[in-house]
Design a protein that fits this description.
By secondary structure, the chain is of the alpha+beta class. It contains 7 helices and 14 strands. A hairpin with a 2-residue loop joins strand 8 and strand 9.
Length: 276
Amino acid sequence: MDSAHDDPTALRRTAEQVAGQAAEHLRELRAEGAARAVRTKTSPTDVVTAADTALENLVRTRLAELRPGEIVYGEEAGGDPTAAHWVVDPIDGTVNYLYGLPWYAVSVAAVRGGEPLAGAVVEPASGRVWSAAVDGGATLDGTPLRVGEETELAQSLIGTGFSYRADRRARQARMAAGMLPRVRDLRRAGSAALDLCAVAAGWLDGYLEHGLSWYDWAAAGLIAREAGAVVRVPGPPGAAVAAPDDGLGADAVLAAAPGIAGALTALARDCGAGEV
């Protein structure tokens, strides 16, 4: 922490404010039909709507007003991740947004030296606001969050997700098929940020996915950790930090209630997570 300017509580308020304004604007854009203007990125199934671009522009503008001179790294317009002060995903769950499903979110995280200090995830369809600050706990609409207390992996509900690349999706499906008989069930909602927040709330006992980007987990991973979850993430882009040597694979993101975190890690490893 360099100064009061980087106080996590103040950064949290800024993240909540900007993400909330973006979520409100997204509701307006949906009414105007912005979800129907679509292009693709890494594959024919990896879509970007006009709303994604418009929303990131709005977030960048508001952050420039509130935090002049601070560097933003975003999903759509990129930026320098090694110098970033803010990490932004304008719509996490764009395919859900495109199809009219309600599980998508705006994610804004404040980072310093690649480490998140504060963040907010706002779900436009419901208005829910999740947020956290380092050593300040995590909340949902102002109510403190705490992860679940499950200790039996066989009774645990686990979230996951799949790549936009068909070859990797097939490997992920094989891993999921191996895990499925040994947990209560698997869920695939389509928004990594909301899945991580669900772990924070105890709505999921654990979550595992490969291939996520920094902006997918920067805010929500902090929310899960501050709610008491065991959280394992890759280093941010460009960081000289090796992935944990746990056999899950370099780009795995895992969050779990402490009572099942070790067992979930072992199960995923046994089911081929390191080869995904």
